[in-house]
Amino acid sequence: MNKSLASAQDSSLLAEINITPFTDVLLVLLIVFMLLAALMVPPGFERSFANPGRPTAAAAFQRVIVTIDRHGGIAVGGKTISVAGLYAAMSRAGSKARVSLVADTHAPYGLALRVLDAAKLAGINDVEFVTQ
């Protein structure tokens, strides 16, 4: 008889969950995380844009265009060079150069890393990847 009484009591209870406080907590956490994300910008993401009236420091930069073809040929400024010549060309360009790397999609991946390594050893911090 206890079993039937207990099951009768269980079926008469209606379980309700009030989700309003839970939703309030989630919204507060969302706002806190949005504020923290805006305040914690990693270094290197800041970019200063040039004013149109003033000359920029970018005018002092020399652009070096490095291309890698699908067969592994490397060219700097349109002239074909070897890997050793790549390191020499980067050091000649100087640390204030900007490197644009244009590589074929089937080019050997290691050569792109060589270009990045040569730029790093030359003190060049500005390397861009150009897609075609």
SSE inventory with pairings:
Elements: H1 2-12, H2 20-39, E1 62-68, E2 74-76, E3 79-81, H3 83-93, E4 97-103, H4 109-121, E5 126-130
Parallel strand pairs: 1-4, 4-5
Antiparallel strand pairs: 1-2, 2-3
Helix pairs in contact: 3-4
Short descriptors:
five-stranded mixed β-sheet, alpha/beta, 132 residues
Structure description:
The protein has 132 residues and is α/β, with parallel strands linked by helices. It has a domain at 57-130: 2-Layer Sandwich (Nucleotidyltransferase, domain 5). It is built from four helices and five strands, in the order H-H-E-E-E-H-E-H-E. A five-stranded mixed beta sheet has the order 3-2-1-4-5, covered by helices on one side. Helix 4 (109-121) links the parallel strand 4 (97-103) and strand 5 (126-130). Helix 3 packs parallel to helix 4 (109-121). The longest helix is centred in the first third of the chain and has 20 residues, at 20-39. The chain is elongated. The termini are far apart. The model has no long low-confidence stretch (mean pLDDT 81).
What is the CATH architecture term of the domain at 57-130?
2-Layer Sandwich
Shape: elongated
Terminal residue distance:
81 Å
The number of distinct helices, counting runs of at least 4 residues, comes to 4
Mean pLDDT: 81
Main sheet: strand order: 3-2-1-4-5
Low-confidence stretches: none
